[in-house]
Design goal:
about 290 residues, 12 helices, elongated
């Protein structure tokens, strides 16, 4: 929503003030399709050269994330705390055998079924279940440091995969000013081929060429760059839920008291995603 509002403000302020100050918007609009076609065509071609199908889909998904915003909100982080705490409580109170059915088939688990939004995230569920499988198959003999290292590797892999399209968007933003210059140079070449034309015609052609430079800079710093930044924010926000899982599992395996484990996971969240202390502990007592 905010991204769409920002784009509208960007276009209105740039083109509106240009027109208000006496600029000929008609000349810009006349050159816009050609210059935009060159810049966007080169940008799309570069993206295709530098990515496979999966990478291109991920970039498109990153753009969608800019407009949709984070997948998880405060209630989802609260649910995650409840879910993982319940699983660790079963492990602690009833042992690995009681926990095993839930992590082997989370889709059939009554505990996981209480949190359908989390259950739909395959990566999140895999992180929870795969980690707890290590604990179950080791019958409690696995060193907690080893479990933590495995989780850190998994978190890094997930983060690197999630952030890759953002890096591609940022690379595109960095390249757009140069692509704008490409379009402008082609416009100058076209102008030089018509050097025998009257000054008013040459002036219009040079103006059209300069639109390419303008578009390259505007797209880079006014659109694609901010979109890359926003996509990074969304990914970092959603990625915090994986760290909640790690915090609760590892701290529980170290034998810390449950209130301390939960508060460490809760307080480590950004304020926008942080459930209230009372919501967490009232919910835990209710379960």
């Amino acid at each position: 929503m905010f991204a769409a509002i920002g784009i509208v403000i960007l276009l209105v302020m740039v083109f509106g003030i240009f027109t208000f100050s006496g600029g000929d918007i008609g000349a810009v609009m006349l050159a816009l399709p050609i210059e935009m076609g060159i810049i966007c065509g080169a940008a799309i071609g570069g993206l295709i050269i530098g990515n496979n199908i999966a990478g291109l889909k991920a970039i498109l998904g990153g753009v969608v994330q800019v407009f949709k915003g984070p997948q998880y909100g405060k209630s989802d982080f609260l649910d995650c705390i409840f879910l993982v705490s319940k699983l660790m409580k079963i492990l602690r109170a009833d042992g690995p055998l009681a926990l095993e059915p839930h992590i082997e088939d989370p889709q059939a688990s009554l505990i996981f079924a209480e949190y359908p939004h989390l259950l739909a995230d395959k990566k999140l569920i895999a992180l929870i279940c795969d980690t707890l499988r290590l604990v179950v198959v080791s019958s409690g003999t696995l060193d907690t440091h080893a479990v933590e290292e495995v989780m850190d590797n998994s978190l890094k892999t997930n983060h690197d995969e999630a952030i890759a399209p953002v890096n591609s968007l940022q690379n595109l933003a960095d390249a757009l000013p140069a692509l704008g210059i490409v379009a402008a140079v082609l416009g100058v070449v076209k102008t030089m081929g018509a050097i025998d034309q009257p000054p008013e015609i040459l002036g219009a052609m040079i103006g059209s060429a300069l639109v390419g430079t303008f578009l390259g800079v505007l797209l880079a710093y006014g659109l694609v760059g901010p979109m890359a930044s926003r996509a990074r924010q969304v990914i970092e926000s959603d990625g915090a839920i994986y760290h909640v899982v790690k915090q609760i599992i590892i701290a529980s395996l170290y034998g810390h008291p449950q209130p301390l484990v939960i508060e460490a996971a809760r307080s480590g969240l950004l304020q926008v995603n942080q459930p209230a202390f009372s919501d967490v502990f009232d919910g835990i007592r209710g379960n």
